[in-house]
C-alpha cells in the first residue's frame, strides 16, 4: 500500500530531492495545487548522491532515501532520461552524464545526432521514475513515459535538457517550444506524478 501524504509530514513539508533546476521547477509546478510546502535539496545544502543504480527506479529510490534520511522530511526524487530506439535505449540512465560536468546538452544532442548517422528510425521516449521516500525508510515509486521522435536541428529554448530535440507523438511542437502547461499535459514526469497523486495524495487539489 502506498503511504498517504501529508499524514505525518511535519507541516506538510516535502523535499524535492533534485539538483537540476529544470526538474525542481517542473516538480514545484506539479505540486503547486496540492498545498504542500516544498524545499529543494540545494536549499537544504544536501549532497548530490552518486547514481550507482542500473535502472531509473533504483536511482530514484537511492536519491529519495538519501534526502529523506538527511533531512528528516519526506523526499520526492526523480530519475529520468531519454531512450533512443536506434541506440538501443541510450543514453537512458546516463542522460545527465552524456552532457558532461558542464551540463552541455547542446553537446549531448549533437552526440545523439552523430551516433544516429542518418538512421531512419527516429523514435525515442522519455522515462521518469518518481519516488516518495520517508525518513523511516518507507518508499513508493511510480514510472511515467512519453513517446515521440527526435528532430534535428533542435527547436525552441524552453524547458531543459533534451527538450529541444524531442517531438512528442501527435504534437507539432518540441518540448523545447512548449510552455510549462503544455508539457505537463503529456510529459513522462506528469504521467508519473499523476500516478503518485492518485496513490499518495488525499483529497482534491486546490482550484
Ligand atoms: O523533461 C525532460 N526534458 C529534457 N530532458 C530531460 C527531461 N527529463 C530528464 N531529462 C534528461 C536531462 C537530465 O539531466 C537527465 C536526467 O538525469 P537525472 O540524473 O535524473 O537528473 P539530474 O542529474 O539532471 O538531476 P538530479 O539527479 O539531481 O535530479 O535526463
Ligand atoms: Mg542525476
UniProtKB/TrEMBL annotation:
The EC number of this protein is 3.6.1.66
UniProt keyword terms in alphabetical order = Hydrolase, Magnesium, Metal-binding, Nucleotide metabolism, Nucleotide-binding
Q: Where does substrate bind?
A: 18-23, 80, 160-163, 183, 188-189
List, alphabetically, the GO terms of the cellular component aspect. cytosol
Query: Which molecular-function annotations from GO does this UniProt entry contain?
Result: dITP diphosphatase activity; ITP diphosphatase activity; metal ion binding; nucleotide binding; ribonucleoside triphosphate phosphatase activity; XTP diphosphatase activity
Q: Metal-binding among the record's keywords?
A: yes
What this protein catalyses is: dITP + H2O = dIMP + diphosphate + H(+); ITP + H2O = IMP + diphosphate + H(+); XTP + H2O = XMP + diphosphate + H(+)
How are cofactors bound according to the entry's free-text note? Binds 1 Mg(2+) ion per subunit.
In Pfam terms, one family for this protein is Ham1p_like
Q: Which family does it belong to?
A: Belongs to the HAM1 NTPase family.
**Subunit composition and interactions:** Homodimer.
Q: Which NCBIfam families match?
A: RdgB/HAM1 family non-canonical purine NTP pyrophosphatase (TIGR00042)
Which HAMAP family does the entry mention? Answer: Non_canon_purine_NTPase
Q: What's the protein called, per UniProt?
A: dITP/XTP pyrophosphatase
Species this chain originates from: Stella humosa
Amino acid at each position: 500500500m502506498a503511504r498517504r501524504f501529508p499524514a505525518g509530514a511535519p507541516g506538510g513539508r516535502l523535499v524535492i530531492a533534485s539538483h537540476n533546476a529544470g526538474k525542481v521547477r517542473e516538480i514545484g509546478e506539479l505540486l503547486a495545487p496540492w498545498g504542500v510546502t516544498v524545499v529543494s535539496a540545494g536549499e537544504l545544502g544536501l549532497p548530490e548522491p552518486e547514481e550507482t543504480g542500473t535502472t531509473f527506479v533504483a536511482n530514484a529510490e537511492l536519491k529519495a532515501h538519501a534526502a529523506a534520511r538527511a533531512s528528516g522530511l519526506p523526499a520526492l526524487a526523480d530519475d529520468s532520461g531519454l531512450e533512443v530506439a536506434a541506440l538501443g535505449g541510450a543514453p537512458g540512465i546516463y542522460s545527465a552524464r552524456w552532457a558532461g560536468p558542464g551540463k552541455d546538452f547542446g553537446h549531448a544532442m549533437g552526440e545523439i545526432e552523430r551516433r544516429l548517422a542518418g538512421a531512419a528510425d527516429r523514435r525515442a521516449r522519455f522515462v521518469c521514475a518518481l519516488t516518495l521516500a520517508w525518513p523511516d525508510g518507507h518508499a513508493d515509486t511510480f514510472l511515467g513515459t512519453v513517446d515521440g521522435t527526435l528532430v534535428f536541428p533542435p527547436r525552441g529554448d524552453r524547458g531543459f535538457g533534451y527538450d529541444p530535440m524531442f517531438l512528442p507523438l501527435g504534437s507539432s511542437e518540441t518540448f523545447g517550444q512548449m510552455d510549462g502547461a503544455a508539457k505537463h499535459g503529456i510529459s513522462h514526469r506528469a504521467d508519473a506524478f499523476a500516478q503518485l497523486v492518485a496513490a499518495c495524495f488525499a483529497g482534491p487539489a486546490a482550484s
